[in-house]
Each structure stands twice: as C-alpha cells, then as structure tokens.
Design a protein that fits this description.
- Helix content is 26%, strand content 11%.
- It has 243 residues and is an alpha+beta fold.
- Strands 3-1-2-5-6 form a five-stranded mixed β-sheet, with helices on one face. It has a two-stranded antiparallel ribbon with strand order 4-7.
- The termini are far apart.
- The chain has one domain.
- It is globular, with a radius of gyration of 19 Å.
C-alpha cells in the first residue's frame, strides 16, 4: 500500500517538477540573451555606433572576426566545443569572456564530440555581413549602425535557433520566399526567446505547428512556411524594405 501511494505521488509530482525546470531554463535563456545583448550594445558604443560583424560560414572560418567565431555541425568539428571561439570573438571582451551566455540550457542535443557551445544566432540584417552583403535580401535594408534602425524596439538582434539549422551565427531567410532555411528555436513550450536593438527581450510562442521542430541531431532541408503566420511575425521584426 505504501509503495502504491509513493508511486501515485511520484506520478503527480514529476510533471510539476518538469514544468518548474522548463520555466527555470526559460529564465536562464532570457538572462543569457540579456547579457549577450548588453555586450552587443557596449561594442557598438565603443565603436562609433558601428554594429559588430555578422559573418556567414566561409568568412567566419577564414577570418574568425565576427560576433561568434564558430561554425557548428553534427560531426566532430572543433567549432562545436572550443570555447575560445566565443570568448575571443568580437563580443568576447564586452561579455567578460563568458561563453555560457551564447547557449540556451534547453538546447541539449550534443555533437559526436561533446555538447555544442552555442544556441544563439544574430539577425542577418543587423551588423556587417561582409561578403554576404545583399546576397539574400537585396531589397531590404542592412543595418550597419543603430542610428539606421527606424524602430529599435521592433527589430530583433539575437534569438535561439533550432539546432538542426544552426551553423554560423548568421540567421537568414529570404524574406519574400516564405521558406524556412534557418528555423527559429521553440525550446520553451513552443516559444522562441529574442532580444531587440533597444535591449528589451521577448518570448514569442509560435502558432503554426510546423514551425516547432524537434531537434534530430542532423542537418534538415528547408521547408515551406505554410501558413505564413509565424514567418510574417519574424519577417516584420527582421528589416524593412528599401525606399
């Protein structure tokens, strides 16, 4: 009888404990974004309002001169686990050389050579994209300075990205194609965490079931954003069309 009662209590408590853990991880993720956003702002203030580099895969690997100097994969790349690529990045000195702020605690899927060190990506339209300038969205404005952003509270900077599409720190989709190439995260009960140019943070829950993707530990192909609801929500907060 006692064992049966303990079993019933355990069955009742486990979901509560899991929910509490999930909430704690969401708070930690938001706090990490806050610290990353602060480092981004401090860099900008220290560099005449110029936003930090935001490079794609080839330039990140060749130069290691961007906000996050690693390119993650599902193989055994050193970039998956070497914290120096984050602590010595362009934002490293402004983040007190902290690597943990680049990671969402709910992003747990490891690479073959160990836990991956970064979950966060940066809006491709924010910062200097180097050789990728005007490659994906030439009709939309690229923001090189905070002064160029028309609505600082309405343009996102960082978000947690779905691990299967995460490689560089350059979060990009062709805004008029309505296809997910890079997929936003949904680690927090179907929601993504974001920070914005003005420094505020938001959590947004996706409404299209297909946007919420379970991490499989392998690269996934692009897929249509159908219906457009979630894609439009993020598109509106990515950039504005050139006049």
């Amino acid at each position: 009888m006692v064992i049966a009662i303990i079993g019933i209590l355990a069955a009742l408590l486990l979901p509560v404990l899991a929910k509490s853990k999930a909430k704690a991880e969401a708070v930690t993720c938001s706090n990490n974004l806050q610290q990353l956003s602060l480092a981004w702002i401090l860099y900008t203030e220290d560099n005449g309002d110029l936003l930090v580099n935001n490079h794609g895969v080839p330039e990140t690997l060749a130069l290691r001169q961007t906000w996050a100097n690693n390119v993650e994969d599902w193989q055994s790349s050193d970039d998956n686990t070497n914290l120096v690529y984050l602590t010595d990045s362009k934002l490293g000195p402004y983040a007190n050389r902290s690597a943990r702020i680049y990671k969402c605690p709910s992003d747990r899927e490891p690479a073959p050579n160990g836990p991956r060190i970064r979950s966060m990506s940066m809006n491709a339209m924010v910062g200097n994209p180097g050789e990728l300038t005007n490659r994906f969205n030439p009709l939309y404005r690229q923001f090189y300075k905070t002064a160029e952003v028309p609505s600082p509270s309405g343009i996102f900077v960082f978000l947690d990205e779905q691990a299967d599409t995460l490689n560089d720190g350059f979060f990009v989709n062709r805004l008029d194609d309505y296809v997910w190439g890079n997929v936003p995260g949904s680690y927090h009960n179907g929601a993504v965490s974001l920070s914005f140019v003005d420094g505020h943070r938001e959590s947004h829950r996706w409404v299209v079931p297909d946007t919420v993707r379970t991490v499989r530990g392998t690269k996934i192909d692009s897929f249509p954003a159908t219906p457009h609801t979630d894609f439009d929500w993020l598109k509106l907060r990515t950039s504005v069309k050139k006049s």
